[in-house]
């Protein structure tokens, strides 16, 4: 079971989490708990590390440290109702925060922040949360110890900020965690691992899901439960369509398509270990624990619902590259993509018609300027005539494995949009046929999602 930032937002919530875990244990389950940082803490750590390196102001570090201490002490007091345990936990918090302070002050003096130090600093969110959760469990009579990702056996590559587990992780985690399960509930820090030299690494933002998935795979868990603040994976954003419903069953493939497209429920990387080991992943709501949520499974009989969900990605921009000289010229796309890769631009969507006269791309809006600058520089005296862009767009994606080999889905999608007078600017469907993505104007996005949600009857109970 993994609990995310808002689920453990403060002491009262952590207590709720400890009670939940205890309840499931008493029903006969063996559990490993994976915790992320208290909500907002990772962001605050990263911001303060950056500020320290840029401004060198030790007074700001001291203020931040005081706030962080207060926040975690308060959480410990609220989560734990035995004074001796509170004392032990706050003592642990203090000694950890003292190390953190030294590191931040060091960064102030050095004026330098390496990727390795960023991982070290950001690991403190989880390392401060874990003792509180563990103390909370102890205070209600559950045996528990804390482990950093590395102590639990997650040994990673050296790719700071985006480390991946080495194969031996699966063996080590199993060896270290399994013997503890009969006796109690081990609490493991999500998000962090260590490399072979024992230096702390992180698995990427939101990486606690990845940690849970690695551990679940290593111990051959029956299920991996990711506790969030929503009722599982929804058919669409309920802010756009109030009738949005929980999808009870979804396949790995569909879930990956959803996460690629901004629904931000599950990161494909995070569920990869589960996929590889064939372990179902369940997304549950901490605030409504009896609700079954969504279960993500390996094989899904092509269900009657051809379309599972409609998602929208905002804060993106469209780039269109055109020129008659591109037609039949080999290597243009390669140059475009290499240029963008070198500029650090992530490409979200691509389309080129068979006329070859233009290539359209969707990128993160924050990457737009460097993308356009890069392409213009690369082709300054050549075959590309025009590079235009549009910020006022959104990507809408229609997802479902049942779409594959079902004729007429695209017809229904675009027919419904046409009837609603929503103009489609760009289209892309990969040949897996699990996802039809298209670009509409920002103003049209809401309507597009509402119309398609209704068209495919996603508001109806299945
Ligand atoms: N605390 C980390 C983050 O904010 C990892 C996580 O929450 O999953 O990215
Ligand atoms: Mg935009």
Q: Biggest β-sheet, characterized?
A: 8 strands, mixed
Radius of gyration: 24 Å
Bound molecules: aspartic acid, magnesium ion
Mean pLDDT, to the nearest integer, reads: 93
The main sheet orders its strands as 3-5-2-1-8-10-11-9
Characterise the protein shown here.
This protein is α/β, with parallel strands linked by helices and 462 residues long. Helix content is 42%, strand content 19%. Strands 3-5-2-1-8-10-11-9 form an 8-stranded mixed sheet. The chain is globular. Aspartic acid (ASP) binds next to loops.
Set down the secondary structure blueprint.
Blueprint: E1 2-3, H1 11-26, E2 33-35, H2 41-55, H3 58-79, H4 83-110, H5 115-122, H6 124-139, E3 146-147, H7 149-152, E4 155-156, H8 168-177, E5 187-189, E6 192-195, E7 200-202, H9 208-218, E8 224-228, E9 249-251, H10 252-260, H11 268-277, E10 281-285, E11 294-297, E12 309-322, H12 332-342, E13 347-352, E14 358-364, H13 368-378, E15 386-399, H14 409-419, E16 426-429, E17 435-441, H15 442-455
Parallel strand pairs: 1-2, 1-8, 2-5, 3-5, 4-6, 8-10, 9-11
Antiparallel strand pairs: 6-7, 10-11, 12-14, 12-15, 13-14, 15-17, 16-17
Helix pairs in contact: 1-3, 1-6, 2-4, 3-4, 3-6, 4-6, 8-9, 9-11, 12-13, 14-15
In short:
This protein is an alpha/beta fold and 462 residues long. It contains 15 helices and 17 strands. Helices cover 42% and strands 19% of the residues.
Key attributes of the depicted protein:
462 residues, alpha/beta, 8-stranded mixed beta sheet, 15 helices, 17 strands, 42% helix, globular, binds aspartic acid, binds magnesium ion
């Amino acid at each position: 079971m993994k609990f995310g930032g808002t689920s453990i937002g403060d002491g009262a919530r952590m207590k709720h989490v400890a009670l939940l875990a205890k309840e499931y244990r008493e029903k006969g389950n063996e559990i490993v708990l994976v915790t992320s940082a208290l909500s907002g803490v990772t962001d605050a750590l990263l911001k303060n590390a950056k500020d320290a390196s840029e401004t060198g102001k030790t007074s700001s570090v001291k203020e931040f440290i005081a706030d962080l201490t207060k926040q975690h002490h308060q959480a410990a007091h609220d989560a734990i109702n035995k004074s001796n345990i509170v004392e032990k936990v706050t003592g642990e918090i203090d000694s950890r925060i003292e190390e953190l302070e030294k590191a931040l002050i060091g960064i102030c003096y050095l004026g330098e922040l390496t990727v390795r130090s960023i991982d070290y600093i950001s690991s403190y969110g989880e390392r401060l949360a874990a003792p509180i959760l563990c103390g909370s469990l102890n205070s209600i009579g559950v045996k528990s110890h804390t482990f950093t990702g590395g102590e639990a056996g997650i040994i990673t590559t050296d790719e700071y900020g985006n480390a991946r587990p080495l194969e031996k992780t699966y063996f080590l985690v199993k060896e270290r965690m399994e013997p503890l399960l009969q006796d109690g509930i081990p609490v493991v820090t999500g998000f962090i691992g260590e490399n072979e030299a024992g230096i702390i690494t992180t698995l990427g933002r939101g990486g606690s899901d990845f940690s849970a998935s690695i551990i679940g795979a290593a111990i051959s868990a029956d299920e991996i439960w990711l506790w969030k603040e929503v009722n599982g994976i929804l058919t669409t954003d309920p802010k756009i369509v109030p009738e949005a419903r929980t999808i009870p069953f979804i396949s790995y493939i569909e879930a990956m398509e959803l996460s690629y497209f901004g629904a931000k429920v599950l990161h494909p990387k995070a569920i990869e270990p589960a996929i590889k080991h064939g372990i179902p992943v369940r997304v549950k709501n901490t605030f409504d624990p009896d609700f079954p949520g969504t279960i993500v499974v390996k094989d899904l009989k092509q269900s009657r619902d051809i379309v599972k969900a409609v998602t929208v990605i905002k804060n993106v921009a469209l780039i269109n590259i055109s020129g008659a000289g591109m037609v039949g010229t080999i290597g243009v796309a390669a140059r475009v993509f290499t240029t963008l890769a070198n500029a650090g631009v992530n490409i979200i969507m691509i389309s080129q018609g068979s006329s070859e006269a233009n290539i359209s791309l969707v990128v993160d809006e924050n990457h737009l300027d460097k993308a356009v600058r890069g392409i213009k520089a690369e082709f300054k005296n050549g075959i590309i005539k025009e590079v235009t862009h549009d910020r006022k767009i959104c990507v809408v994606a229609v997802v479902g494995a049942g779409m594959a080999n079902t004729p007429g889905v695209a017809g229904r999608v675009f027919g419904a949009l046409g009837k609603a007078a929503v103009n489609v600017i760009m289209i892309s469907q990969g040949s897996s046929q699990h996802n039809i993505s298209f670009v509409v104007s920002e103003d049209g996005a809401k309507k597009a999602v509402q119309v398609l949600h209704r068209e495919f009857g996603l508001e109806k109970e299945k």
